[in-house]
Amino acid sequence: MKNYIKTKINLFKNRNKESRNLEIGPGEVRIPGFETLNIANSPVTDYIINASKPLPFPNGTFKVLYASHILEHIPWYKTLDVLKEWQRVIKIGGEIEIWVPDGYKIAKAFINAEDGDNYLDLDGWYKFNPQKDPCIWASGRIFTYGDGKGTLGHPNWHLAIFSYRYLENLLQEAGFSEIRKMENSEVRGYDHKWINLGIKGRKV
């Protein structure tokens, strides 16, 4: 009930703002100038909503929609529908900026490590993997770890994997143009560094 009330209050408070941006899945620090939407409440969350569901905003509400390491938590077979819904709430001429784990890079690094060319220290992420085994590393990067206790349905599991080619095709199908790969210098919030794959498109 508290989450519902907080969401309704912020929807009302922000409804008439002239220039609006939305971050889906904020970190611990709010990006200046962005409203925030997340599946769980936090001090920097404005709207407690599942981002895979219809969003409670009119068509063309936001100039920029930013989603860093969120899309992989949505089931892979729902990705296109979700991107179409996110596109709906972006203004004509507005932009979407998405960051995800680079599935191509993960798969290639795993295969190379198994074949003896191990460069996984470039990533350096070894949660639950003190032995630095490449297979455990790949499992963690592809599936992540939920709540660390094996609870199925926890929102921290990864449910999709992406390459740039695939994301570019999805954004085109969802109605975006001027699609390009982003550089890590364009990260607005937390930088996932080596694993990061960023893509940007404009609504036409």
Major β-sheet annotation: 7 strands, mixed
What portion of residues is helical? 25-40%
Strands ordered across the widest β-sheet:
3-2-1-4-5-7-6
Secondary-structure element series: HEEEEHEHHHEE
Q: Radius of gyration over alpha carbons?
A: 18 Å
Number of helices: 5
β-strand percent reads: 15-25%
CATH superfamily of the largest domain: Vaccinia Virus protein VP39
**The CATH C-level class name of the largest domain:** Alpha Beta
Shape: globular
Descriptive notes:
- With 204 residues, the chain is α/β, with parallel strands linked by helices.
- It has two domains: 2-102 and 162-203, 3-Layer(aba) Sandwich (Rossmann fold); 104-143, no CATH class.
- It has helices spanning 2-14, 79-88, 103-114, 134-143, 164-174, and strands spanning 21-24, 35-38, 47-48, 62-68, 90-101, 176-182, 196-203.
- A seven-stranded mixed β-sheet has the order 3-2-1-4-5-7-6.
- Helix 2 links the parallel strand 4 (62-68) and strand 5 (90-101).
- Helix 2 (79-88) packs across helix 5 and helix 3 (103-114) runs antiparallel to helix 4 (134-143).
- The longest helix is centred in the first third of the chain and has 13 residues, at 2-14.
- It holds the Pfam family Methyltransf_11.
- This is Methyltransferase type 11 domain-containing protein.
- InterPro entries: Methyltransf_11 (IPR013216), SAM-dependent_MTases_sf (IPR029063).
Quick structural gist:
This protein has 204 residues and is α/β, with parallel strands linked by helices. Helices cover 27% and strands 22% of the residues.
